[in-house]
Amino acid sequence: MTDKSSKFNQDHPNIIPDENKNYTFERLLIESSHILNRNLELTSLLKNILNILTDYLGAEASAILLTKTTEDYSELFTFIAGKDIVHEVHIPEEDNSIARLVLEKKMPLIINEKELTDELKDIASQRIEITARNLMASPIIRRDKYLGVIEVFNKRDGNDFDENDLEIMSALGDQIALAVANAKLIRRTRRKTSEAQSLYEVGKLMSGTLELEELLQLIVEQLSRLVKVDVAAIYIVNPEDGSIESIVSKGVSDQIKPKLSLKIGQGICGLVAKTGESMVVNDVSSSQQYVSMRTQTKSEIAVPLRSRGKVLGVFNIESDELEAYGKADLELLEAFASQAAVSVERAILYRQAMEQKALEDELAVARKIQETFLPNNDPEVEGFDIAGVNIPSEAVGGDYYDFIDIVDNQIGIAIGDVSGKGIGAALIMAAFRASLKAEIRNNYGIRTIFKKVNSLLYESIERENYVTAVYGVLDTKNRVFTFSNAGHNPPLLFKTDGRIIELSEGGLVLGMFPESNYEERPIYINKGDILLFYTDGVTEAQDIDDREFGVERLKEFVENSRKLSPKEIIEIVIKEVQKFKERNKPLDDLTMILAKCL
Question: Same domain, yes or no, for 401 and 549?
Fold first, then answer.
């Protein structure tokens, strides 16, 4: 037996268990090496280390502090004889006085009772839940890299720690450093394998769905299995209004969900959407950018969803712990974001395509409805040449015109426009047309017809909808046109003497107010006079400078073409409107009726 071994056994009789096993110093190293390499799963390894330290050094408790590694935070593992291992993470740097002192000096230390300050006692008490009398600490070093610090507290025999104890701890430290390094490598490898498997699983899941909400929910669920998440949300950028809105979330109360909408540049997620750069905030109270939506949140990571240089949205996860996230968490989230971006873009495009198809289907139905109540042919009446046209816009508005047979020598002329577009406008116009014809058949006067139609529409449509219309009866024998205007663009009567009369008498728009009264007016039409009805799609067409075609321009073109037939005049006006309008601006329905007295 060597002198060192003899001295070890003399000073540490408590670790000689029985007559069949003589613990020399060399035997201690062999035994500890066997124990340390038996299981390299990190938590199990640390428990074995702490057992060895407390047993071989005759201590009451021990602890290991692992310094920052790829996880970007410190980890503290403590063990008290007779109790289970306790695992705490994210220890603030300024709160590691003992370990920091060892790492700063890069050498072990012994602090016995006379040297133990109240501050160190408090720290030890918080860590190991016992009152410290003395302690010993030594750095864990592997290839000149400091992996952490091992500590032992309170000799069970009541004595102080001495140089022999420190020598044993230092000797064990080399083996501990190797085992910890290997265990960390194994843990990182397992984590990377688990992450890769999860990314593979997410990839398979994402390839199986084109529904955006379903896809994002799958991503959130997979991510929650790998990263500590108290709250997770995925925001999608709305390029139309400059906002980002949460599509799916986890851990968010129903009261908070309506608030998960931000402007680009607002809050941490809004800033990430604006800059396209990830952010890790491990204390949100110190961030001026943070927008508080739940008081429990302490840490947050936000990562952009980018595809082809464009930010589609933002991944956001939050923890109720300070310093919850590190470099590895950020790398994992960025890997998820990179993989998900392509699928998210595909899902967004799929949704847009479905919405576009639904809109096109709706417009097709609206056009069919509109076509059913537009006249197939221009009327043939004695003494007048009459033509009408409707050119629907891509959005399909609610324009309507009609020629209605009443009795010999009398024909009803109607033109109208519904607020709004699409199938809703077409259905309202269909209701207006049906009620108008029904009241006409009851032989009511024009003012009464509009009053009854207004009441019916008021009861049938929402308040934001209404109909503007002109209805009149042309007496072709007496050349009199009796009309009422319900808030519509006034028809224009071009007289042969150059005067242009606007037919505005009537009342308010139809369907907006429950009780509206309407007046009617007869007007005589002489030979050569032209009567023009039109909707605002003609006069409100805009050029590149946002100027409208306008009524005056319309008057000019009709006046200059008055020698032509109604059909030819209409064609000229349509051509001029289309030439005037800026190509990229939407065109409303364009509807006109022109009657010329022969």
Answer: yes
